[in-house]
Amino acid sequence: MSDQSTPYLSLENVSKTFAGYQALADVSLNIRQGEVLCLLGDNGAGKSTLIKVLSGFHQPTSGTVRVEGEEVTLKTPRSAAERGISTVHQFGGTFPLMSLGRSFFVGVEPKKGVGPFKVFDKKLANAVVVEQMQQMGITRVTDGERLVGSLSGGERQVSAIARAVYFGAKVLILDEPTAALGVKEAAHVLRIIMQARQRGIAVVLVTHNVTHAMSVGDHFAVLIHGRKADDFAKGERTREEITDLMAGGEAMAELEAELADLTGTTNDIH
Amino acid sequence: MFDFKALTRRAEFAAFVGTLAVYLFFLYFGWPTFPTVLVTAGWVNVAAELGIVALPIALVMISGHLDLSVGSNIAAAAITYALLCGHYGLPDVIGLPAGLAVGTFFGFLNGLIVTKTKVSSFIVTLAMSFFIRGLIFGVTKLIVDNVQVAVDVDPWVEKTFGGRIYLAYENAIYLFLIMALVISWILYKTTFGNWIFAIGGDETSARAAGVPVERTTIFLFMGSGFGAALLGVTTVALYGSAQVSAGQDKVFYSIIAVVVGGVLLTGGYGSPLGVIFGTMTFAIVTSGVNSTGWGADWSLLIIGLLLLVAVLANNTFRNLALSGGKVTTTATTPDPPRLPEPVLEPSMEKENDHV
Ligand SMILES: Nc1ncnc2c1ncn2[C@@H]1O[C@H](COP(=O)(O)OP(=O)(O)O)[C@@H](O)[C@H]1O
Ligand SMILES: [Mg+2]
């Protein structure tokens, strides 16, 4: 790779072992501002584990995490957040039964008034969330009192990204944000990712959809069984090479031949 | 403009409809006794006393926990007050606050054990309930060799906590209203209130977002301990004695009132106004039956039915709120499958400076 500037966030030889099972082995990565880094890999490859290390949910068993070149220990999600690392996880939930305005500001509630009479500024919270969602193209959200659970999957991803951007995230980590989304919704989320990148945010995008990755990625890393199998910049690999890598090194062509046998067709299924 | 649809989406809407329904029901079947001033005072008093306990419990339940120790806590506070003032002759200015402090302290213990051990609050407060009851039984028997303690409450206590506002209407109604205002203010107007919803919605996400989960949870249990204790000293002020076995029925009654009031048993959703309707509904049913001539036994049956119907109704209305109106814009693919909801951490925020 060509960029010599200090990456905002980097991993050096990071390993993570769960009770004897090595989920990550010797992984090094550089995450730069204004770049989208795509983490590719099959299910179970260690992608989620890697971003949990980046976001302070797990501590690496060995290896170093650096923020702006300085060695750090991200003990908790909160300490990661304080360094501008914001994560939208694949699992778990925001607060489906809370209003948009309330959930947007959990932990960072805006207040108005003086002294002991400071109260939660619901009006501001609702106004901000509507404004942010509108800016991100979710125009049907016009009322901050709406429950989070009434949004679609894509809208929730967008609102989570909006939140991170609003609070000034430097690194935005997204775990499979487009999985389970319809085509249009996925495209919308990818557009929002490009917007975040344009603002100079470093985006880590976890996905196993090669099309989605190739449409927004500047840099790619492929994980296989917890190891970094490849690491390359945009344009350095063909789609076939990436797909092959993700299938665990097993040539996709072989797989396709197998499939063709199974379905009894000799047609090329490219 | 009056927006009826928005109204139906509020957490307390089903609870309001329930209160209205049971009121009309007994207005019809209990006519002409039910709407009289005295019968009304009867159910309003029941609602007020129950509400004093139920409102703080509602906050505990919105945060996703339960408190089954309130019954024992009512008795603990009452016995403390009665022993200190009735038996040892200390002034009420010491005995009454001591009663409140005892209940709050047991609430604190509940919260501490729940947050430290991660054992479900159902078990912790159930255990605490037996522990407290046993403790006050033992201590009271030791000191006065009886299961009840009489006390001559000071006039100022009688005028505030005990006593009547007008005819049979108890001063407890004032306490209930104050409690309702305080609880609503906490839930809606403070950042602490936002944390309660967040913890009940998803504790892990709340913690990741920087909510002090432990502190908040402990405080909520202290609140329900205080509420129980407040009712405990109030009954002493009203009746001039404390029973070791007092308050037992309040455990389930308060949970029923809270759930009928629209609070989600698993947490994250509910409103104090709804709980007020819940306590009223409960009180109307238990008192209203007496106006019908059917016999009080039927009230339990009605409450059983009511609980079930209320929960079903609340689920329906909550789903309505979740649907949040029709999706009309650029309808994409037919409703994309729901994503696992994203968890998000805030960035940049410095340590929380509140509470
Ligand atoms: N907390 C954990 N304890 C034990 N094993 C884990 C834990 N988290 C992940 N793993 C294991 O590590 C491997 C990588 O998982 P994960 O990072 O979730 O993969 P991916 O997100 O790429 O699908 C899996 O085999 C998984 O079972
Ligand atoms: Mg994963």
What's the short version?
The complex is a heterodimer of chains A (270) and B (355). With 270 residues, chain A is an alpha/beta fold.
Shape of chain A: globular
Enter the CATH topology name of one domain in chain A.
Answer: Rossmann fold
List the total number of helices of chain B.
14
Strand percentage of chain A: 15-25%
Order of helices and strands of chain B: HHHHHHEHEEHHHHEHHH
Give the rounded overall mean pLDDT of chain A. Answer: 89
Walkthrough of the structure:
With 270 residues, chain A is an alpha/beta fold. Chain A has a domain of 157 residues: Rossmann fold (3-Layer(aba) Sandwich), CATH 3.40.50.300. Chain A is built from 9 helices and 12 strands. In chain A, a hairpin with a 6-residue loop joins strand 7 and strand 8. Chain B is mainly alpha-helical and 355 residues long. Chain B has a domain of 229 residues. Chain B has a two-stranded antiparallel sheet. In chain B, helix 4 runs parallel beside helix 6 and helix 13 runs antiparallel to helix 14. Classes of the chains: A alpha/beta (270), B mainly alpha (355). Chains A and B meet through helix 2, strand 6, strand 8, helix 5 and helix 6 of A and helix 9, helix 10 and helix 14 of B. The complex binds adenosine-5'-diphosphate (ADP) and magnesium ion. The site of adenosine-5'-diphosphate (ADP) has 11 residues of chain A, from strand 2 and helix 1.
Properties at a glance:
heterodimer, A: 270 residues, alpha/beta, Rossmann fold, 4-stranded antiparallel sheet, 12 strands, 33% helix, 25% strand, globular, B: 355 residues, mainly alpha, two-stranded antiparallel ribbon, 14 helices, 67% helix, 3% strand, binds adenosine-5'-diphosphate, binds magnesium ion
